[in-house]
Amino acid sequence: MTDLGLADVAVVGGGIAGAAACVALHRAGLRSLWIAPASASGGDRVGESLAPAARPILAELGLDGLTERPGHRPANAAFSAWGTDRLVERNAIVHLEGPGRVLDRAGFEADLRAAADGSTGRCREQLAAVSCADGRWRLELAGGRSTTVRFLVDASGRASVVGRTLATSRRDDRLVAACAFLPHRDPKVEPTPATLIEAVEDGWWYAALLPDRRLSLAYFSDPDLLPRGLSRDLPAWQTSIAGSTYVSHWLADAGFDADRPPRLHSAGTTWLEPAAGTRDGAGWAAIGDAAAAFDPLSSHGMTTALWAAARIGKVAAAWLGGDPEPLSAYAHAVAAGISRFRAQRAEVYGREQRFPDAPFWRRRKPDGVTALPRR
């Protein structure tokens, strides 16, 4: 078995969290190995809203210019019908950090990967096995190569391929996102550069105009409340859209075409307890969705991933230097953030009182979260 060579830290996962972690580790003076196989899914990625709080984090990583490149747009206006039949506007002028960004997600990730590739050695093979002994992690890859490191970062997303073997996995719900990217068919109409959130009886809708004039559209509900076979049934998807008020009007007025059924993605709130620690004298930490994947209502998934990645360089450097305190502090900070989010989510869902008997909303009362049936 071929050895991959010397590295202080291994980062598992090729998404935003993994790429940013490699940049942070390089800035901390550490050698890292990035195990980042190419995505099998390809195509558009769900999630394009970057919160204003991400701006100082990107600056800390030396990446503050990434969101200013062509292809991204300011996220100035957001409208919501939540807890009321009226549409309420919120403007970015209230944010001291300035507006957030609606990203060309593929372009942003490509730029972030390029920055990471300049900071680390990258391996595109799948991780096959992980073991730990005598203060070192041994990682074996599908192609037959291997390496050993003293610190391991799990940035593998919701799969949390390493963290799930080291900590307890928790789940609050089984929220599912039905997602589609709708083309704009009417050249005579200039679509509104806005974001729209609309609560309905069995869930809630999210729509955002992308920089390329397509509409990112998602419907969030529970598996047993979605039409059976929705991902293969265009008429059922179109009927679901027609059941909304403001979303369906936006699509019709601006000339967006729901021309194919949606793809389904897990969107529930999951997390690890703890999100970092030690095993047989070796250190590890989970970041991004591998540590905590939040209900998209927060719109902070990418920002949280960047925050954790920015911390991990100093955490790993301290651990390797014999100081375990920053690793413990990171685990406590993640746990505190999860507690805050769960309390805030309960409060936000609690604002919607129009559907008191609907299963989706009953389940999201403080005493109503239950394990939902699988399909």
Automatic annotation (TrEMBL):
UniProt xrefs under InterPro entries: FAD/NAD-bd_sf (IPR036188), Flavin-dep_Halogenase_NPB (IPR050816)
Signal peptide: none
PANTHER family: FAD-BINDING PROTEIN, SLR1998 PROTEIN
Protein name: Dehydrogenase (Flavoprotein)
